[in-house]
Amino acid sequence: MTGAAIEAYGLGLTYGRRRRRTALRDCSFRLPAGRICALVGPNGAGKSTLLSLAAGLLRPTEGTVRVLGTTPAGARTRIAYVSQDKPLYQQLTVADTLWAGAQLNPAAWDSDTAERIADPLPPEARVKSLSGGQRTRLALALALGKRPELMLLDEPMSDLDPLARHQLMGVLMAEAVEHGTTIVMSSHILTELEGACDYLLLVDGGRIRLGGESDDIVSAHALLTGQAGDLAPHTVVESRTTGRQLTALVRPEGPVDRTAWDVTEPSLEELLLAHLRCPDAPPLLTPSADAREEVTAA
Ligand SMILES: Nc1ncnc2c1ncn2[C@@H]1O[C@H](COP(=O)(O)OP(=O)(O)OP(=O)(O)O)[C@@H](O)[C@H]1O
């Protein structure tokens, strides 16, 4: 398929030889290019593993992944990856780090963007003297300066103060709009992602549970409230009873009986939390996220 930033088919990764730990299993999905995608899931779900596979830092133990129409290794110059621990050279100064970024990316380096993002940092400060949030800012300056087609960001906002978070989220979104950059951003802060991301991947227990346009995923669900009653024929994600009142998150399979139920649209956060509380709910991929054909070897 064309126009995909990431395509995975049966993708899996098991760490270790003796004490094997399966981090991802049988993940098939497609992320169209140009999206800002939230990658969400509980601790240990497999988000970092998925990002590392897409960045070409890990090789799958099963299945395949393609990035920007080629192998992750083949796309390396077109990808920027910011890992959770933001590895930077401790001895270099901020100015040296930006200079090194320019030398390593001579064809596409965007010094204006990189310097604008790094601006609040003292140029002569050594990386080892920066705070966690300041290092994140420098790592994002390097990533954006590279002018990548795909940015893979592992919890990029977790140690930034609210003002810096707001500013850098704005920069990321402007970048996506102006240059069509695809951004995949893992985070635990669901409210922050709700306004910023137009695409969603929910990973849980090493599997993809939800994938697709956030709006389409939300509108595929309904919150029903009423007297305890029959929820058939709808697919039930979660149902809870308080006294005689039943509240259920369902995927409607046909018209909902509005004489029996109050019907509202769930927020993205309500929807995600319900899926996390109910791991047996069936997965849902919208048509654009559905990778039906096996991609060629990674
Ligand atoms: N290097 C490793 N060796 C062995 N197991 C690992 C390694 N890295 C991750 N794992 C395991 O793989 C699983 C997925 O980890 P991963 O870091 O991908 O999760 P995550 O969704 O990014 O979690 P978090 O939200 O806590 O960052 C976990 O069970 C973890 O313990």
From TrEMBL:
Keywords: ATP-binding, Nucleotide-binding, Transport. Residues 6-230 form the ABC transporter domain. GO terms for molecular function: ATP binding. It holds the Pfam family ABC_tran. Transmembrane segments: none annotated. The keyword Membrane does not apply. This is ABC transporter ATP-binding protein. It comes from Streptomyces silvae.
